[in-house]
Automatic annotation (TrEMBL):
Family, as annotated: Belongs to the cytochrome P450 family.
Residue ranges crossing the lipid bilayer per the database entry: none
Protein source organism: Anisodus tanguticus
Protein's name according to its UniProt entry: Cytochrome P450
Entry GO CC: membrane
Cofactor(s) for this UniProt protein: heme
Length: 320
């Protein structure tokens, strides 16, 4: 399914997007994840394992939507969530044990990531967290950042297919960055800072298709707001990435990552992940949707009902 990256070969984007965060998390065993060959036996096995891990995270995410079910009855979403969380903990404990070995042998850095930080940081009494406590903390981070970024990447692909002029703006920006790189040179933080238009597009996608539902965008009754008449049924879905130029929206009028002291701590990671995804996809392909009017379902986050199949068209000349 993931090997057919050819024109007129449908590729379900949502399952792939949902796999990428897990694939990155499991880099201890599933590397590499950016420049992988999908026809390689080793990488195909890695992708299948990451996909399995990803599905389990999705099941745990569903637990929050069905929290009213307090009994773990066979066949219920709550029961699947309990089994999935146990599966994930086992995987995480294996990673934790290996990281301890790598730290002791100098193969991993104490400042490498949050896992190393948790393993080496004690409380005021000098006590360290045990492996299961660390696994629970990592699981919490997974639930907060797994399906959210995947949903965002999926809808970015959807809207770029639907609005060609916005795709061209993103393509132009990303190709300018790609052409400035030496062959094989990776993206760096300065490159991410140059992706201003691309990030405006991401923000617009987050505005019209927020992964976390709750801000309703359709007027259910007629009403007046600051002297303006808003009729029932009015929707604010027309896409204008330019609304985010300059200083952008007023504070607390656009809060896909929350705001104030409880703002999502993963905002910059999500920004990095999404922009790197856009860079590698846009510079290699143009695409069109396989299903023109595919239905969007919310379960519990918005996803295309059929996984957003697309037809990929490789650019004639590829940079790096």
């Amino acid at each position: 399914m993931y090997g057919g990256l050819l024109p007129f070969s449908p590729l379900p984007l949502y399952p792939l997007c949902v796999t990428l965060p897990s694939f990155h998390l499991l880099q201890e065993k599933l590397r590499p994840w950016l420049d992988w060959n999908p026809t390689s036996g080793q990488n195909r096995m890695a992708l299948e394992r990451a996909s399995s891990f990803s599905q389990q995270v999705g099941n745990v995410t569903l637990k929050n939507s069905y929290s009213i079910e307090c009994l773990s009855l066979p066949g219920t979403p709550f029961n699947r969530a309990i089994k999935a969380s146990n599966f994930i903990r086992k995987e995480l404990v294996l990673i934790i044990k290996q990281r301890k070995i790598d730290l002791a042998e100098g193969k991993a850095s104490p400042t490498q990531d949050i896992l190393s930080h948790m393993l080496l940081t004690s409380d005021a009494n000098g006590n360290f967290m045990n492996d299961l406590d660390i696994a629970d903390k990592i699981l919490g981070l997974l639930i907060g950042g797994h399906d959210t970024a995947s949903s965002a990447c999926t809808f970015i692909v959807k809207y770029l297919a639907e609005i060609p002029d916005i795709y061209e703006g993103v393509y132009k920006e990303q190709m300018e960055i790609a052409k400035s790189k030496a062959p094989g040179e990776l993206l760096n933080w300065d490159d991410i800072q140059k992706m201003k238009y691309s990030w405006n597009v991401v923000c617009e996608v987050l505005r019209v298709a927020s992964p976390l539902q709750g801000t309703l965008r359709e007027a259910i009754v007629d009403f007046m707001f600051n002297g303006f008449y808003i009729p029932k049924g009015w929707k604010s879905h027309k896409s204008f990435p330019s609304r985010f130029e300059g200083s952008g929206p007023a504070p607390y009028t656009f809060v896909p990552f929350g705001g104030g002291p409880r703002m999502c701590p993963g905002k910059e990671y999500a920004r990095l992940e999404i922009l790197v995804f856009m860079h590698h996809l846009v510079k290699r392909f143009k695409w069109e949707k396989g299903i023109a009017d595919e239905k969007i379902v919310v379960d519990p986050m918005p996803i295309p009902a059929k996984g957003l199949p697309v037809k990929l068209y490789p650019h004639k000349s590829l940079v790096n």
